[in-house]
Each structure stands twice: as C-alpha cells, then as structure tokens.
Specification:
By secondary structure, this protein is mainly beta. The chain is 10% helix and 56% strand. It has an eight-stranded antiparallel beta barrel. Strand 2 and strand 3 (62-76) form a beta hairpin. This is DUF6089 domain-containing protein.
Length: 225
C-alpha cells in the first residue's frame, strides 16, 4: 500500500513537470545607478553585469520567474551634467547581488510551441532583496571600514521576447530598481567626509539580452487570471 501511494505521488509530480513549459536562461548586459554622484540617466549601462533565471509559464499571458543577478555599479562626477558635481569630483564603485521574484505580463499570448504565438512585448513586476557594501566607520581620515548590508527594492521592467530556433528564445529587457536606501554610493550622515547625500533614494538599473532554453511538453496552461 505504501509503495502504491509513493508511485501515485511520483507519477503526479512527473505529470506536472512534464506537462508544462519551463525556461532557464542567462542574461548579459550592463548596469547603471542614479543617485548623488555622476549622471542621472535611467538607461545608461556602464558596468558589465549578468543574471541567471528560471521561469514557469503559468498561462499564455503570465510567466512566474526567479532571478539571481550580479550587478556592479559605479559613477563619477566628471561625467555629470552640472558644474557643481564636476567641480566636486566624487566617484565610487560597488557590487550588488540580487535575488528577485516576480511576474511577466505578456501583451500577447506567448507559447513557443505555437508558430503564431512565438513573440510578445511584456512588462515585469518583481520584489527583490539585494546585498551590497556600505561604510561602517572611518578608521582614520579618508580610510574607511566596510560592511555588507541587505535591503529591498521594487523592480519594474519592460521587455520583448521571441522564439529563436527550436527550444531556444531570446529577450531584450530593461529593469529599474527603486531602493529604500541612500548609501549605495557610500554616502552617510554619520561620517562628515561622506555626508553628501540627499533625501532622495538611490536607483540601480539593468539593461541586457537573454538567451532562453525552454523544456517540458507544450503546456496545458492553468486557467485563471
């Protein structure tokens, strides 16, 4: 009896995984930051970055996804468009490691196994946790002790995806992360030499191209939404 139950459970889970379309992929692109240092362009990638992701196509309009992103960021006042920043001459580099969960909402029905549903633009809504380096203390003038900090962001994005060949597809995507922090550039009111921040929160962005591999049988999509 126990073996029969285990067999039924195994078959049920196998049917779920084989009866849907899943996607894994790699994104390559660039990042930029908007805050107290440097330029304020929301799409101006200047640091190479990468991400890996897993997607579950819930129905032809909605895709659930999980993403890990490696996102170096940096800025330099010499590239700013104001004399104040150019004369100030600040610069910084930091690295963000991010985990995000979210949904893609397709403008058109998307199904890579169907010839007439093999492309669509989409919007992306996510919640993200990210880790980065921040200044803990100033041990001597101009010498700082750093620590890691974890926070949260609300990423939104836009993209376009299309079948490439067979089970391969590609996507072009831009994501914008609004954070609840003002120290991605190490600014802090606790240390006088780094007290250059404002009341505005920092943003970081990723723009890139993805290669996507699709597996599983053509989906029997979940009804709803």
């Amino acid at each position: 009896m126990k073996n029969s139950i285990l067999f039924i459970v195994f078959v049920s889970f196998s049917s779920i995984f084989l009866g849907q379309e899943y996607e894994v992929g790699l994104s390559l692109g660039g990042t930029n930051y908007v805050g107290d240092i440097g330029r304020t362009n929301y799409i101006y990638p200047n640091k190479p970055a990468a991400a890996v992701f897993f997607k579950y196509n819930w129905n032809p309009r909605i895709t659930l996804r999980a993403t890990y992103s490696y996102l170096p960021i940096g800025a330099d006042d010499k590239n700013a468009d104001t004399d104040f920043k150019q004369n100030r001459g600040l610069s910084f580099n930091n690295t963000i490691n991010e985990l995000a969960l979210g949904m893609e909402f397709n403008f058109y029905e998307y199904d890579i196994s169907s010839e007439d549903k093999s492309w669509t633009p989409y919007i992306l809504l996510e919640l993200a946790a990210f880790n980065y380096k921040t200044v803990k203390s100033e041990t001597s003038p101009g010498v700082y002790e750093y620590t890691n900090k974890t926070s949260y962001a609300i990423p939104i994005g836009i993209g376009y995806k299309s079948k490439l060949y067979g089970t391969l597809a590609f996507a072009i995507e831009a994501k914008f992360r609004y954070t609840f922090e003002d120290d991605l550039d190490y600014s802090t009111s606790r240390i006088q030499s780094l007290d250059f921040g404002t009341n505005g929160k920092d943003w970081y962005m990723f723009t890139g191209v993805s290669l996507i591999y699709t597996f599983g049988r053509p989906a029997c999509y979940t009804e709803g939404l």
